[in-house]
Amino acid sequence: MQVSDNGTDWRTVHSTTTANGDIDTIDVTETARHVRLHLRARGTGWGYSLHEFGVYS
Fold it and tell me: Which residue range or ranges hold the F5/8 type C domain (predicted)?
């Protein structure tokens, strides 16, 4: 997961290669205006599946 203050310069706040496809809750203390999920590899042979993505303060 990456965050940015201006939408151009991104910084990584969380990265993993051990996700299991279940529910993941990530606690981040960064403050930013933009959040993006940067997917690099499929977890299964069926492609990417994202049921829900939320940002809460």
Answer: 1-57
d(CA 51, CA 35): 17
Distance CA(27)–CA(37), nearest Å, equals 14
Domain parsing of the chain, residue ranges: 1-18+26-57
Q: What value, to the nearest 5°, has the Cα angle with vertex 27 and ends 57 and 13? A: 100
Close Cβ partners of 36 (under 8 Å, ≥ 6 residues apart): 1, 2, 3, 4, 10
Please identify every stretch of the chain with a pLDDT value under 70, giving residue numbers as ranges: 43
Helices (H) then strands (E): counts for the chain: 0, 3
